[in-house]
Design goal:
This protein is α+β, with helices and mostly antiparallel strands. 43% of the residues lie in helices and 24% in strands. A hairpin with a 4-residue loop joins strand 2 and strand 3. One of its GO terms (cellular component) is cytosol.
Amino acid sequence: MSDAIKVPGFNSSDVIANLQTSFAQLPEAEKKEKIKKTNGIFELQITNTKKETATWTIDLKNSGTVYKGNAKPKADVTLILSDATFVDLASGKLNGQRAYMAGQLKTKGNLMLATKLDGVLAAQKAKL
């Protein structure tokens, strides 16, 4: 299942595949709690060093899933960042607020929801 989500040339692919696997293994009650707590759809537009862009979606509003491609329905927040920045965010080396203030992370949509991504990534990192 996670191989279909990977995109060659993106280090983020492994992180996102792990996130997808982790969400898939959550007990239903825990998944519902995470959806209730986050209540948002994140679209990640990640650009690698070759200036190629890949898009993934984290749906924590309806289904509690992670998939490759644009958000369906429309994302509540779109995050635009580099591959390296996403990997640093996911590993905890970089704080989302710092990345935003430094111009490493751009958003479209609900900026306050974007602040919840740090928590989503941290919670999944702890489980892996």
